[in-house]
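Support request from a user on the community tier.

User writes: "When I paste my structure tokens into the form, the page sometimes reloads and wipes my input. The last time it worked, I copied everything first. Here is what I submitted, just in case something in the input itself triggers the reload:"
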């Protein structure tokens, strides 16, 4: 069945506007203008009605964490079984959001702390996160930046954005900028064009990435106009955010095809969410549908410790179980990397089932997805060579100009030239004792 402006969407549109048309429905600005932000409209449009008690709780939740649902996304809700519906659960407030747990943190990823100028989080050596938009078309209930949802719905001024661009300009090690928000695709095409043009003038920037949920919640935003603008700024990579196979509708698929046809490599970042996709079968279906639409599953996130997300969190074991069900069972490039974004700002940490089960002299013991246990005999004759990151091999084979950046972190412990033998957190009680 073709989903674009189907019967239920037509009747929805009719409740919103006297003379609705396909043209209006598929106009992203019309969708935003008609976004559902209160309970009355939600009830009227979906035919779902809540008890007085329920309404009071929902109202209270919306006061703290506002609601906004595009008519398109709303039209995907199954109003009969809404309580179990993954679309409903991702978009409609749950009073559990008000339950703050002890371990919850307002800004768990310390994005505001690792921020040299407002809007930028510079955490990794060669790339950074640049928040260029304050707004989203749909407010995901599981938003990791929930602290900010609905705060300011204004477009950041050119002056503000320029501060971020200037920081990138004077930071030559940054070769990859990740535009996020909010949703960068909620900016006007012209404004985004300006940002991309300014960024492209920076000689050391090699790629620009854009994170957007519009293909899932507002696919009509992916207009021919937007796509031809993006094409001018290659290499552009786009990461989108689908969490459930039901989100891959005809409209969503068309938007992905447009982006892929423009030569934009597409990735997907999902969040593992209790009651929504915490199931190996749902996840497998999701990743397979994504690759069918030329989207490479990139990350599967363990749900962050942001306030208001308690009811969405699963144990980490659930994620490992899902990975166990994907690796080996389906196409390798359909398998995302499961990560926990470290509370306190350590960045993304990959988590995997264990495949290396033992290790002896020159021999490792491995197991595969079926449970086959096998041995891999390592070479007896491998000759290690000393590398100071500017060794003969480096210069002969890579023709690098001088030494590359020094090794950091665990890579530093592994490096030949560095004498460091351990990494110790500063000011531990043990270290403090030594000083006495
Ligand atoms: C996720 C993230 C990035 C990008 O990380 P990749 O692993 O390269 O995708 C960069 N900066 C911040 C702050 C991030 O959270």
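"...and here is what came back when it finally went through:"
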């Amino acid at each position: 069945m073709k989903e674009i402006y189907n019967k239920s969407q037509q009747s929805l549109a009719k409740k919103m506007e006297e003379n609705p048309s396909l043209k209006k429905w598929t106009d992203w600005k019309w969708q935003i203008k008609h976004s559902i932000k209160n309970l009355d409209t939600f009830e009227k449009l979906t035919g779902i009605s809540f008890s007085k008690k329920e309404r009071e709780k929902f109202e209270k939740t919306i006061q703290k964490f506002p609601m906004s649902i595009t008519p398109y996304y709303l039209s995907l809700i199954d109003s009969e079984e809404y309580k179990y519906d993954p679309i409903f659960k991702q978009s409609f407030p749950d009073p559990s959001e008000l339950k703050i747990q002890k371990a919850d943190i307002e800004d768990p990823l310390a994005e505001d702390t690792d921020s040299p100028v407002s809007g930028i989080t510079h955490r990794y050596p060669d790339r950074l996160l640049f928040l260029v938009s304050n707004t989203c078309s749909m407010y995901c209930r599981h938003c990791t930046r929930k602290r900010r949802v609905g705060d300011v719905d204004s477009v950041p001024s050119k002056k503000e954005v320029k501060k971020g661009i200037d920081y990138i300009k004077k930071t030559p090690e940054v070769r990859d900028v990740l535009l996020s928000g909010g949703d960068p695709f909620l900016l006007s095409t012209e404004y985004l064009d300006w940002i991309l043009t300014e960024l492209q003038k920076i000689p050391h920037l090699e790629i620009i990435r854009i994170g957007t949920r519009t293909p899932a919640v507002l696919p009509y935003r992916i207009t021919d106009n937007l796509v031809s603008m993006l094409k001018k700024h290659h290499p552009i990579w786009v990461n989108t955010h689908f969490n459930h196979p039901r989100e891959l509708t005809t409209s969503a698929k068309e938007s992905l095809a447009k982006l892929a046809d423009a030569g934009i490599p597409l990735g997907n970042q999902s969040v593992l969410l209790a009651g929504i996709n915490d199931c190996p079968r749902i996840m497998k279906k999701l990743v397979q549908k994504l690759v069918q639409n030329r989207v490479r599953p990139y990350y599967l996130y363990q749900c962050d410790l942001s306030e208001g997300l308690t009811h969405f969190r699963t144990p980490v074991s659930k994620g490992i179980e899902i990975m166990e069900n994907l690796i080996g069972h389906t196409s390798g490039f359909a398998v995302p990397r499961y990560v926990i974004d470290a509370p306190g700002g350590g960045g993304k940490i990959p988590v995997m089932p264990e495949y290396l089960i033992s290790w002896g002299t020159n021999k490792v013991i491995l197991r595969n997805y079926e449970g086959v246990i096998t041995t891999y005999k390592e070479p007896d004759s491998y000759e290690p060579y000393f590398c100071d990151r500017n060794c003969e091999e480096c210069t002969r084979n890579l023709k690098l100009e001088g030494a590359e950046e020094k090794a950091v972190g665990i890579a530093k412990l592994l490096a030949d030239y560095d004498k460091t033998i351990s990494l110790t957190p500063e000011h531990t009680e043990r270290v403090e004792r030594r000083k006495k």
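Agent notes: The reload is a front-end session timeout and is unrelated to the input. The mean pLDDT is 93. Residues 7-98 form one domain. Escalated to web team.
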